[in-house]
Write a structure and sequence with these properties.
Blueprint (H helix, E strand, L loop, with lengths): L5 H9 L7 H14 L7 H13 L6 E4 L8 H4 L9 H11 L5 H16 L11 E8 L6 H15 L3 E6 L3 H16 L5 H7 L16 E2 L11 H6 L10 E5 L3 H12 L8 E11 L17 H11 L1 E10 L20 E4 L9 H4 L18 E4 L22 H19 L7 E6 L4 H23 L3 H12 L8 H9 L15 H5 L2 H7 E6 L17 E6 L12 E6 L6 H6 L15 E5 H25 L37
Parallel strand pairs: 2-7, 2-8, 3-5, 3-6, 4-5, 6-7, 9-14, 10-12, 10-13, 11-12, 13-14
Antiparallel strand pairs: 1-8
Helix pairs in contact: 1-2, 2-3, 5-7, 6-7, 7-8, 11-12, 14-15, 14-16, 14-19
């Protein structure tokens, strides 16, 4: 049986306040320890972890609103909308009790979702015709799904009858998003056969005391996207008063199918008047933007979205993105998806590991000068014969892997081992290898990596001196220009960055060595692409999945690799938004921030530094605009720093409305 997280129990002892004194925290920890029989938990560590949770802070969001279209309604209606006992109330409890979200983060989410909803419209007013478009800008891997799940819950409580989430271009991302909606909104597993087999009909919010009913037109199966047959098979009346939800891909065929199904529900004026629709566009800068050359005809996916919106008398569109470079250059017309009503910028919480903490704004030649950047990036040079920058699909594939990739595999084994040493035995661990977009190359590299890993695992099983020495050197000594595990932990602990993670500790080789066998035994190697038949099925691995994932486009945008710690990344893109989105290593790394490693080229490192600076300037520009009286979203299309070399801000067909200026 898995041990219950002590932090959850201690939070229940403390109660629901947003802050506590040190004495109250110590008393709650001591009360918890008195209840435990094995006495295995470390008192000082528990106190640090609880204190860390309540010290996490998040700045207030900033908003630019088009005031002449803003009709505040939520403050007047909030007293009669039962958020507390609705979808929102049980989602909030789920975030606190099960997901261990910091109180500050939940409170800020509550305020933010109120503001977004208030900038839409009252869905219960049947006599109005309205449409609203907005954009929410976050950070890569900062929790946008959790954010818009909160909005969906409040929208359903308020009376939005249909909610459509457009989740990326690939089945795996759509499936992952659906599973999170199952847990955070629906409360049941949409893979009904799996739910029956495991006797787990209720999941996530379904396990709270609040009972709510909603219906899903899609499932978390890999091929569980919308079809009219599946929609009809569930026997659901479109007239139901319960909210209906669908999680779909941005795919022309899917958009046409759902448009056809909805068109059949329209009245005499070809409009649906009895329901309000909310469309959530995840990764709104990808595929949704009109890239057509013809001013009379929008591009396929953009047209599909606008046609669905036009079926409803009351419709709302909210895009979410971390890379809004393309969105702010959309032509300002009603037929497009420009966020004319509002743009909101969400700062990340203080425990978020983002570009500024991994790359900074420029490469520091002397690492001692830059204690504000985590010392986890290893710049590599030996990859050029392995995966040339401009390789083609049919080029000769490599016959062996470079020393840097061997080091990365050793690092992943060590990270999994140290996490076990720290008590994190049932967590997910992922390593990303992203070096080519070609499936043939991915399959071949998977074979090479698998062979190398199994050599290491046999060496660990047999206590082979050479293998164990390689692991020891990687752990203890700065070799090949890479920081050792000991030195990274020591450097972070001697800087202000130690506040990021209370569980950072300098271990000894003898402590780590004990866990190598168990850690390596769990690791699987998977090629993740359309023809591989493999999937990152974290949900199926209740005791934690440890995986080395080799892939390309399927791993490059939106998809979360749970417990990602080691990344080997050489996949160059020359566009700010695409390159930043490929950074799956951003996010939250509680308990193992010092165990993460990124292996990449010096050139890519420099590019990420530049994009980090450009992104930060864009956010600063936004904050400035939000303080200007009367500023509108249209006026936000200001300036983005260009690159002096080869990088582009976004794809050329998304930038037709942009103008180059010299400043």
């Amino acid at each position: 049986m898995n041990k219950v997280d002590p932090i959850k129990i201690i939070r229940q002892v403390l109660g629901n306040e947003a802050s506590y004194t040190m004495q109250e925290v110590e008393l709650a920890v001591d009360n918890y320890l008195l209840m435990q029989l094995d006495k295995a938990d470390n008192r000082e560590l528990l106190i640090r972890r609880v204190e860390e949770l309540y010290k996490i802070r998040q700045d207030d969001f900033k908003i630019i609103t088009r005031e002449d279209r803003y009709r505040p309604w939520l403050p007047d209606k909030k007293s009669i909308i039962d958020f507390e006992n609705g979808f929102w109330g049980r989602y909030r409890d789920h975030l606190s009790d099960e997901k261990n979200f910091p109180p500050e983060t939940i409170n800020k989410l509550d305020v933010l979702t109120d503001k977004i909803l208030d900038n839409l419209f009252d869905p219960s007013e049947n006599n109005i015709q309205t449409n609203k478009k907005g954009l929410v800008v976050g950070q890569v891997q900062s929790g946008k799904t959790a954010n818009y799940t909160g909005l969906i819950c409040k929208a359903a409580d308020s009376g939005f009858g249909l909610i459509i989430i457009m989740a990326g271009m690939h089945n795996n991302l759509r499936s992952q998003t659906q599973l999170r909606i199952d847990e955070g909104f629906l409360g049941f597993d949409t893979q009904h056969i799996r739910a029956l087999d495991q006797n787990k009909l209720k999941i996530g919010v379904g396990n709270t005391e609040i009972e709510k009913v909603a219906h899903s037109l899609t499932s978390s199966l890999e091929k569980g996207d919308f079809t009219q047959g599946a929609a009809n098979a569930i026997g659901l009346s479109f007239e139901t008063k319960d909210p209906i939800i669908a999680v779909i891909k941005k795919n022309p065929h899917v958009l046409r199918r759902i448009h056809g199904w909805l068109a059949a529900q329209t009245g005499q004026d070809n409009k649906i008047r009895n329901k309000s629709v909310l469309i959530i566009d995840d990764e709104a800068d990808n595929a949704s933007i009109n890239i057509s050359n013809d001013p009379e005809v929008n591009s396929t996916i953009n047209r599909g979205i606008t046609q669905i919106l036009s079926l409803f008398g009351r419709n709302a569109y909210v895009g979410y993105t971390a890379t809004p470079f393309a969105n702010i250059f959309i032509p300002l017309n009603d037929e497009n998806l420009f966020p004319r009503d509002f743009i909101i910028n969400i700062p990340a919480p203080s425990n978020y590991i983002g570009p500024h903490k991994i790359f900074g704004f420029e490469i520091a030649e002397d690492e001692d000068e830059t204690l504000s950047v985590l010392p986890i990036v290893n710049r590599i040079e030996d990859y050029r014969d392995f995966v040339p920058n401009r390789h083609k699909k049919d080029d000769q594939v490599p016959s062996s892997i470079p020393e840097s990739l061997k080091s990365a595999i050793l690092c992943f084994i060590l990270t999994c081992s140290i996490r076990r040493l720290r008590g994190q035995k049932t967590v997910h661990n992922s390593m990303l290898i992203h070096v080519s977009r070609f499936v043939r190359w991915q399959d071949h590299i998977t074979e090479l990596v698998s062979n190398q890993f199994h050599n290491y695992r046999r060496g660990i099983d047999q206590n082979d001196n050479q293998t164990m020495e390689l692991l020891r050197l990687t752990f203890e000594q700065d070799v090949k220009g890479y920081n050792s595990y000991k030195s990274v932990s020591e450097k972070i602990l001697s800087s202000d960055l130690k506040e990021l993670d209370s569980q950072i500790k300098v271990h000894t080789w003898e402590e780590v060595k004990v866990h190598l066998h168990d850690a390596a035994s769990k690791i699987e190697i998977k090629a993740i692409h359309g023809g591989s038949g493999e999937a990152l099925d974290y949900y199926e691995h209740k005791n934690g999945l440890s995986v080395i994932a080799i892939g390309g486009n399927k791993l490059s945008r939106g998809l979360t690799l749970e417990g990602l710690s080691v990344s080997y990344y050489l996949r160059a893109s020359r566009m700010y938004d695409t390159l930043m989105q490929m950074g799956r290593w951003f996010g939250y790394r509680s308990g193992y921030v010092d165990l993460c490693r990124l292996f990449t080229s010096r050139e890519l490192n420099e590019w990420f530094c530049h994009i980090t600076r450009a992104s930060e300037e864009l956010r600063q520009e936004f904050d400035y605009m939000s303080d200007v009286a009367g500023a509108t979203p249209e006026q936000y299309a200001l300036k983005v720093r260009t690159h002096p070399g080869v990088l582009q801000i976004s794809a050329s067909n998304k930038m037709r409305s942009a103008t180059n200026v010299q400043i």
